[in-house]
């Protein structure tokens, strides 16, 4: 039955796979010993040569012909042993039933292995097709959501710029329209930045970053938004400096997205807490809000493609957060409760300042 493995392996795997099987089988046969060692070695080498001459045709043909060819090879190899075997025994007719059973088992074994292999190959192919289909679906959704997120502020900006052309526009109105137009452009730029960061989250230029400085910088940028919604920020300062490896711009984008989400979760105001806690070889950053919170299902889906807890959100911001943290060899945990608030726990490996 060893020849079945050689036949199937060579026909489906090619010369390298078949050659490896041939070597292993022949070494095993040499170790077994017996009078049939050299005929077995010669037979397997000849079979391997025939298989090499036909394996390309085998892979191009239909499944029915594949099975037929494999059966022919298996039976031919089996029958080639019959004269040698019968020459070594007496009462030759007594062994005919054994020979028939052997050939039947050889044929059925070949069919079974090829059938199982075909099923496995089909499953792998279908799985790859499903993955590709899902990728194209996600690309379509991403393109649609980004287009929507960019078109809205640009349309608004265009409208207010057109109003500036009016001769009746007062200086106060002109200033208001310019501010709104600038905000619209900044919003579109934020969406594009998120998209580019998500598309390429890997750390291209690794830097030594002081986490406290990066956190305070992100906090200074988000403070105007916090003041508008009456959100109070509380930072529990640490006396020790903690350094991590990462890329400044991407870490900043990650922190801004989390802070923005926390503030938007407190439309009626609230408190936003920050704490840095060293943990052996890691540093943990706690960001806690007193907002609307999330249930367990929402927490589980957070960071999934295009899932957002906001009615008009795309989920791109949290996708960026997860991808950047992962690229920095970090970990993110989220604890939340409806009506109580949400805590983001970011864990990064500590490094020595160079």
TrEMBL record:
Location(s), subcellular: Cell membrane
Chief site of localization: membrane
Limits of the Histidine kinase domain: 145-352
Listed name of the protein: histidine kinase
Catalytic activity: ATP + protein L-histidine = ADP + protein N-phospho-L-histidine
Lineage top rank: taxon: Bacteria
Organism encoding this protein: Bacillus cereus (strain ATCC 14579 / DSM 31 / CCUG 7414 / JCM 2152 / NBRC 15305 / NCIMB 9373 / NCTC 2599 / NRRL B-3711)
Pfam families hit by this protein: 5TM-5TMR_LYT, HATPase_c, HisKA
TM helices/strands, residue ranges: 35-55, 67-87, 99-117
GO MF, one example: ATP binding
Listed GO CC annotations: plasma membrane
Gene3D superfamilies, A to Z: 1.10.287.130, Histidine kinase-like ATPase, C-terminal domain
Enzyme nomenclature, EC number: 2.7.13.3
Record's bilayer topology term: Multi-pass membrane protein
Upper lineage: Bacteria, Bacillati, Bacillota, Bacilli, Bacillales
């Amino acid at each position: 039955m060893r020849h079945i493995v050689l036949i199937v392996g060579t026909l489906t795997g090619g010369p390298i796979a078949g050659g490896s099987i041939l070597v292993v089988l022949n070494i095993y046969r040499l170790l077994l010993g017996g009078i049939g060692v050299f005929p077995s070695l010669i037979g397997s080498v000849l079979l391997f040569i025939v298989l090499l001459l036909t394996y390309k045709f085998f892979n191009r043909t239909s499944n029915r012909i594949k099975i037929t060819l494999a059966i022919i090879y298996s039976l031919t190899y089996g029958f080639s042993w019959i004269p040698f075997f019968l020459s070594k025994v007496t009462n030759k007719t007594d062994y005919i039933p054994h020979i028939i059973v052997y050939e039947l088992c050889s044929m059925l074994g070949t069919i079974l292995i090829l059938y199982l292999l075909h099923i496995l190959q089909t499953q792998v192919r279908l799985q790859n097709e499903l993955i590709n289909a899902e990728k194209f679906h996600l690309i379509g959704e991403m393109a649609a959501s980004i287009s929507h997120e960019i078109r809205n502020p640009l349309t608004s900006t265009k409208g207010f710029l057109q109003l500036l052309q009016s001769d009746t526009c007062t200086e106060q109105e002109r200033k208001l329209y310019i501010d709104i137009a600038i905000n619209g452009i900044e919003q579109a730029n934020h969406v594009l930045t998120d998209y580019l960061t998500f598309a390429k989250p890997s750390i291209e230029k690794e830097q030594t970053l002081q986490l406290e400085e990066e956190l305070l910088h992100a906090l200074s940028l988000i403070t105007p938004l916090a003041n508008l919604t009456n959100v109070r920020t509380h930072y529990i300062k640490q006396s020790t400096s903690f350094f991590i490896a990462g890329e400044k711009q991407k870490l900043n984008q990650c922190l801004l997205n989390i802070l923005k989400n926390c503030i938007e979760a407190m439309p009626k105001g609230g408190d936003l807490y920050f704490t840095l806690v060293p943990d052996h070889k890691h540093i943990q950053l706690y960001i806690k809000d007193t907002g609307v919170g999330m249930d367990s299902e929402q927490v589980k889906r957070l960071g999934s493609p295009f899932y957002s807890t906001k009615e008009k959100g795309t989920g791109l911001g949290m996708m960026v957060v997860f991808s950047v943290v992962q690229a920095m060899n970090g970990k993110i945990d989220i604890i939340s409760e409806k009506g109580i608030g949400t805590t983001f726990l970011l864990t990064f490996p500590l490094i020595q300042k160079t």
